[in-house]
């Protein structure tokens, strides 16, 4: 029993260390933020395509995640964090424009969140607006694989 408790404590401590290390690495932080946004977009797309039933809580959570994460996102690009990233060097050359794209996506998400779509069609329409903002930024500021 004691061994199980000790092992559990070590695992929890290890997770905490990993989180601290990741928090110190802006590339990891921004990748994490973007993965959550991508997951949220996927959840909305599933509803919009009729692959998943409409669920107001899922829609609200997805939009809240997009809104929250995109507002924190531009702060994760300090000088010197260009390496080992899918981020284009253009970000650091055009930081004000990059930030304006993030601000637009945040505003779009907030607008949709304030008038939460009530059905599948509404989610599809909202996804069109939000998706365009995402795509516009990716075209300019993401290195293509």
Automatic annotation (TrEMBL):
Top-level division of the source organism's lineage: Bacteria
PTM summary: Binds 1 heme group per subunit.
Keyword entries, A-Z: Electron transport, Heme, Iron, Metal-binding, Signal, Transport
UniProt keyword Iron present: yes
Chain positions recorded as heme c binding sites: 134, 137-138
Biological process according to GO: electron transport chain
GO molecular function, one term: electron transfer activity
Signal peptide range in chain numbering: 1-22
GO cellular component, as recorded: periplasmic space
Keyword match Heme: yes
Protein name per UniProt: Cytochrome C556
Organism, as annotated: Pararhizobium polonicum
